[in-house]
Model the fold of this input.
Amino acid sequence: MHFYVPRTAESAILRLRRLIIGSCCVFCNRKSGLDRDICCACEQLLMPRIVRKSRNRVNYLCGLCGDEQTEYCSPQEFHDISNGQALSAQGFFCQQCQNTNTLFVRLLAPYRYEFPLDSIIKKLKYGKQRLLGRVLGSLLASFAKTQADLPQMIVAVPMHPSRQLGRGYNQADDIARWCAKDLGIPYRSRAASRIFDTGSMAGLSKSARQLRILGAFSAAEEVHGKRVAIVDDVLTTGATARELARELYDTGALSVELWVLARTSSAR
Ligand SMILES: [Zn+2]
Ligand SMILES: [Zn+2]
Done:
């Protein structure tokens, strides 16, 4: 469901500036040289990636449970990890989670939910700074481009209409839209909807979240036979995305993957 949101003066100025001098970095205000509002220097410096490497040691957060993991590897393995920093069905899960059935054929979570990315996501989410949706969407897209066999359709985790009316927009929707545009994959904003309002789930345990989200989503027939990626801003327990995935499979989706900007650490 979409609601009319008036464009702010800030947005109009930025749009004009993009037209005249191209994209500027939203962090340092310098010309970005890229079509995505973040310069290479800031992208390198600002973002705490989910995989951290030093010499022969690799640290990462488990994609499923968020536990910090440390592995020692050979130079070749180190090189492979450096080039494909993806959490996929094949790797980056802790020993305990490796044999867990995830529902997701692929899990992309390029960054840790830490400063400064957490503050950027909060600004998009609560500060009405919707321009950040483009930066975050394109960061997710540039990460997805490193993957093979991209999905046929992107959906965002939907908000309940009454909540969306209150906020004026859905931040996952903004991220998904820009991400899909960069990748040239169709974005289907009406392919999934939220039937009832689950309220805020912040602070709830994993099982409490699972219980509350049961049956909250409805998927449209257009997902039938399609390889679908769910896009969201942050992955915490994954209860919401799993419930949406279950609904997509029930409606006939061929496969479902989960793409999020950032993963929270279980140590938080
Ligand atoms: Zn910059
Ligand atoms: Zn784990």
